[in-house]
Specification:
mainly beta, 285 residues, globular, 14 strands, 3 helices
Length: 285
């Protein structure tokens, strides 16, 4: 399938809200010291466990075994929402086998790691809202909003200039939030980023021309209006990292990347990669 050339047109200054990408949420990693071992030892026995392919923001340094999963999003009435795909009753998962015409599947299995497999929102038919909602207020600008309100486009109007004294200004404005976590349930943490680099990646411009075509098509379908999002659970010991969050990240060449302070794992949000991992099975409901 050809790329949707109208989704990220040449710079025009126009704003566009798109309602439809069909997808799912697919998977990522494991926890503590046995992460690498679980990749090979975990069987698909259980509910919705087993080998899965997904697109992640690349792990570039530190002990994390792989990148954190990219969460496809869309924008409805100015609110950011994660895409949740159709339920496949035969496989017991929600999945789009060919997300965005990329040939790469997007499945709820990508979230089944680091304890997220027990989150109510990961169950395929869970009664959960897909709206991204404000989190704990990691960044100073987030203190202007109550926790739990929808994350909206206008919160990021200054994304082309935003900076907080960490790394380079103008690379994008980040926010923290939760997804499919309504009520008294386990939280699925997400990080949202609006960046001028997002449409460049989607169109394969400049330094992003080497990103493989299928991954780029997936990325284009998973992002909108310069927004991207990922599941914010480090694939090493399941900590919660942050983009431009800690001054100490500069000591690890991570001031312009996602840095996990627990064990110095680093992720590059501007380099989407295709990965395969073993999803932990969900416990019975």
């Amino acid at each position: 399938m050809p790329l949707d050339e109208d989704k990220y047109p040449a710079e025009s200054g126009r704003r566009r809200f798109v309602k439809g990408v069909v997808g799912s949420a697919a998977l990522s990693t494991v926890g503590a010291g046995g992460a690498a071992a679980l990749d090979t030892a975990t069987s698909s026995a259980g509910i919705g466990g087993g080998t899965t392919t997904y697109v992640a923001i690349e792990n570039t340094a530190g002990p994390a075994p792989r990148g954190m999963p990219l969460i496809p999003l869309t924008i409805e009435s100015g609110e950011l929402k994660g895409v949740w795909p159709e339920f496949d009753s035969e496989r017991g998962i929600v999945i789009n086998d060919d997300f965005g015409g990329s040939g790469i599947p997007y499945s709820s299995q990508m979230l089944q790691y680091c304890g997220l497999q027990t989150a109510e929102g990961v169950y395929p038919q869970a009664d959960q809202n897909n709206t991204f909602r404000t989190g704990s207020g990691t960044y100073a600008w987030e203190s202007e909003y109550d926790q739990g309100v929808p994350i909206t486009v206008d919160m990021f109007d200054d994304y082309k200039e935003w900076g907080n004294g960490i790394g380079k200004d103008g690379l994008g404005k980040p926010g923290t939030g939760t997804w499919r976590s309504e009520g008294d349930v386990k939280t699925i943490p997400v990080q949202v980023l609006r960046s001028p680099e997002v449409p460049k990646i989607a169109n394969g411009e400049g330094p992003y021309s080497s990103i493989p075509g299928p991954v780029r098509e997936y990325f284009k379908a998973a992002t909108e209006d310069s927004f991207m999002a990922w599941a914010n659970k480090c694939t090493h010991f399941c900590c919660v990292p942050g983009y431009k969050q800690l001054e100490g990240s500069a000591n690890y060449d991570a001031e312009n990347k996602v840095y996990c302070q627990c064990h110095q794992s680093v992720y590059d949000p501007f380099n989407p990669v295709q990965k395969t991992m073993v999803a932990l099975p969900r416990p019975p409901q």
